[in-house]
Design goal:
The chain is of the alpha/beta class. It has two domains: about 30-325 and about 335-390, Arginase, Chain A (3-Layer(aba) Sandwich), CATH 3.40.800.20; about 410-640, Arginase, Chain A (3-Layer(aba) Sandwich), CATH 3.40.800. It has helices at about 30-40, 55-60, 65-75, 80-90, 100-120, 150-160, 175-185, 235-255, 280-290, 305-320, 335-350, 365-390, 435-445, 450-470, 485-495, 550-570, 585-595, 615-625, 640-655, and strands at about 1-5, 50, 120-125, 165-170, 190-195, 225-230, 255-260, 295-300, 410-415, 425, 475-480, 500-505, 520-530, 540-545, 575-580, 605-610. The chain has an eight-stranded parallel sheet with strand order 2-1-3-8-7-4-5-6, sandwiched between helices. Helix 5 (about 100-120) runs parallel beside helix 6 (about 150-160), helix 8 (about 235-255) packs antiparallel against helix 16 (about 550-570) and helix 14 (about 450-470) crosses helix 15 (about 485-495). The two termini are about 45 Å apart. The relative contact order is 0.09. It binds N-{4-[(3-aminopropyl)amino]butyl}acetamide (Q9C) and zinc ion. N-{4-[(3-aminopropyl)amino]butyl}acetamide (Q9C) binds near residues 172, 272, 302 and 303.
Length: about 675
């Protein structure tokens, strides 16, 4: 199951024909540089090429009015003067004799992508298109957009394939107000957008881009706006919003298809966004969405105006869609104050609609609005001063390092008699065991010094970890007699290297090496139903859930809002994932967890399972190979006790772990409890 890439040079064949400073950034090279970068990095060749088509009138009318379509249809025949005049009735957009043709191709490209994914021709894909779409409205062009490509695709997908729920993630730095208006009262399409807002000072300066526009009537709760009230937002700010808003809600919503308004003006260097997130953050944003909807994800280009930044971001996105492990997420130092205020505002505005946010703190609306007025004045002063100096200096950032994918994806250490699944390699060091190591293992871990099977298994395990450290193997799975011993053994080995950090995730109540967390080289998170005394160590985190791991909603909430956030901030070089036979964790959740955790440590995940668990080898290996996990179904509200326990834990830990924060200190918005 591959990745579709849709691109057609024809969409480079229109441009601005007159002087207009607001439109001059939207150039044909946006598409050529993106495509050339994909070719240069060998990514285009690995994709399935899918041709564009023209969207039909019927397709376009799914979203736009007949009058508007008829008006746009006339533009190819207009003189320059007519085009200028026609353009004037809309905001921040330009027309060209060939733009109608390109706009039909852009919308058609989105539909071709939906068809390729929905018919199973590919798993996911990206369409590189111009003009973009998310600002265009039922009867108006706007913000460089003519037809609303993604909105049309969502309606088309619902109609043609009978989909019940579509998620639209708009990570472009502008608010896709056209998409919002289209689905405002529609609970079958969940629209999420973050955008530069600056308390309504930034284009398109709409009151309805704020977090309190949550959708209307039946659609209430299905429109999520995250306003950025400052420029300079970084990777931590973006990831915080994913961990504490988008992912919990998306998992609860359980979409049949994910569409991404993939604008890259939210990356560093972009003159419009003025944000500071690095291009490789898109590897993570993509990865984190890739296990929703059984992996059915369609990314459609929107904005992105710094040609180098844009091309890098497009490559990161496509390479991740292809299944290559994401680079280590560096410098996650927690969200800034302003991002926390937004996070808090969004979560409280949506707490009545989503059970995963029910526990979010309420904020008296008066608090925020007075704050807004005060801030507005500050912002005005600042932008005036900064304006002149800023435009001259160019932002610089290092080119994302080439993502080298290990020659072998998944290796398994299995006892004799257990078959190795397809596409994986059975791994053993039995031909060449290092005698020094064997002795060490015998001394430290084995009661019965002559247990050669156990010795071979542990030696193989260590050899496998070493291959992962050298990036010769991406990930692995071992069926072992004693998971506790294997865990201990791996942790001890890995921590012996100076720079290594190991994240150990234990699902179920095995004996864990909790004493190895003192030096910070191991972060241990254990899920079980065993109440344990309150921990004081930053690196040993027992998570106690009432029904252990059998409550899918509670576990998912903990995995997204707690474990992922901790894992990203810790930035391990290896993830060890352990499950005990009695954990109670359903297979679908296990596969989701395995998939999500591969965003860490460049995908270096080692799964340890107890010997008896042969039945899980196939599905676990499938997740390690990068296959999408099955959906969890729409999630219900977790038990109140669990929610409260998780909140208490998050609250206690957020002093040490900044990515766990969801409220700004000093906003009067402390959590309930
Ligand atoms: N600072 C998209 O990214 N406003 N459209 C320009 C000048 C227009 C952006 C204002 C921005 C439109 C798809
Ligand atoms: Zn944009």
């Amino acid at each position: 199951m591959g990745t579709a890439l849709i691109y057609d040079e024809e969409m480079t064949k229109y441009k601005l024909l007159w002087v207009d400073p607001t439109c001059k950034i939207e150039v044909p090279q946006r598409l050529t540089v993106s495509h050339e970068a994909l070719v240069k990095n060998g990514l285009a060749d690995r994709c399935v090429p899918v041709p564009v088509r023209e969207a039909t009138d019927a397709d376009i009318l799914l979203v736009h009015s007949e009058e508007y379509l008829e008006a746009v249809k006339k533009t190819p025949y207009m003189t320059l003067e007519d085009l200028k005049e026609f353009t004037l009735q809309y905001g921040d957009v330009y027309f060209h004799p060939n733009i109608y043709h390109c706009a039909k191709l852009a919308a058609g490209a989105a539909l071709q992508l939906v068809d390729s994914v929905m018919t199973g021709k590919v798993r996911n894909g990206m369409a590189l298109v111009r003009p973009p779409g998310h600002h265009s409205m039922r009867s108006a062009a706007n913000g460089f957009c003519v037809f609303n490509n993604v909105a049309i695709a969502a309606r088309y997908a619902k109609q043609k394939y009978g989909l019940k729920r579509v998620l639209i993630v708009d990570w472009d730095v502008h608010h896709g107000q056209g998409v919002q208006y289209c689905f405002e009262d529609d609970p079958s399409v969940l629209y999420f957008s973050w955008h530069r807002y600056e308390h309504q000072k930034f284009w398109p300066q709409l009151r309805e881009s704020d977090y309190d526009s949550v959708g209307k009537d039946k659609g209430a709760g299905f429109n999520i706006n995250v306003p950025w009230n400052k420029v300079g937002m970084k990777n931590s700010d973006y990831l915080s919003v994913f961990f504490h808003i988008l992912l919990p809600v998306a998992y609860e919503f359980c979409p049949d298809l994910v569409l991404v308004c993939a604008g890259f003006d939210s990356a560093i260097g972009d003159p419009e966004g003025e944000m500071c997130a690095s291009p490789d953050i898109f590897a993570h944003l993509t990865h984190l969405l890739m296990n929703l909807a059984g992996g059915k994800l369609c990314a459609v280009l929107e904005g992105g105006y710094h040609l180098t930044s844009l091309a890098q971001s497009v490559c990161q996105t496509v390479q991740t869609l292809l299944g290559d492990p994401a680079p280590r997420p560096a410098n996650l130092d927690g969200p800034c104050q302003s991002a926390l205020e937004s996070l808090h505002g969004v979560r409280s505005a949506h707490r009545q609609y989503w059970s995963c946010l029910k526990h979010a703190a309420e904020t008296p609306p008066s608090d925020i609005s007075t704050k807004r007025i005060k801030l507005e004045e500050e912002v005005e002063e600042k932008t005036e001063k900064a304006g002149e100096e800023k435009s001259a200096e160019e932002e610089v950032w290092p080119e994302p390092p080439k993502r080298v994918t290990p020659p072998l994806r998944t290796a398994l250490v299995l006892p004799n008699g257990v078959a190795c699944p397809d596409r994986c390699k059975r791994f053993s060091c039995s031909d060449d065991p290092d005698p020094v190591r064997v002795n060490k293992l015998r001394e430290h871990f084995l009661k019965d010094a002559d247990d050669t099977d156990a010795l071979t298994a542990l030696s193989s395990l260590i050899a496998l970890v070493e291959k992962m450290e050298k990036n010769e193997i991406c990930n692995g799975l071992a069926l072992v007699r004693d998971v506790s011993m294997a865990m201990m053994c791996v942790v001890q080995h890995a921590a012996s290297a100076l720079s290594n950090r190991v994240l150990v995730v234990c699902v179920g109540d095995a004996v864990v090496p909790s004493h190895s967390t003192e030096d910070g080289k191991t972060l241990l998170v254990q899920f079980s139903n065993k109440e344990s005394e309150e921990q004081t160590c930053k690196y040993y985190i027992p998570v106690c859930l009432k029904k252990g791991c059998s409550d899918v909603s509670a576990f998912t909430q903990a995995a997204l809002g707690l474990l992922l956030a901790l894992g990203y901030e810790y930035d391990p070089s290896l993830v060890v994932l352990v499950r005990t036979p009695d954990s109670g964790l359903p297979d679908s959740v296990w596969r989701q967890l395995t998939g999500l955790l591969q965003g860490l440590a460049q995908g270096h995940t080692l799964v340890l399972l107890q010997e008896g668990e042969k039945a899980c080898v196939g599905s676990t290996a499938s997740s390690l190979l990068g296959d999408a996990a099955p959906s969890l179904g729409q999630l219900h509200a977790p038990q109140m006790e669990d929610v409260e326990a998780l909140e208490r834990l998050r609250h206690r830990l957020q002093a040490h772990w900044k990515l766990l924060q969801t409220t700004a200190p000093g906003t009067g918005g402390g959590d309930k409890h």
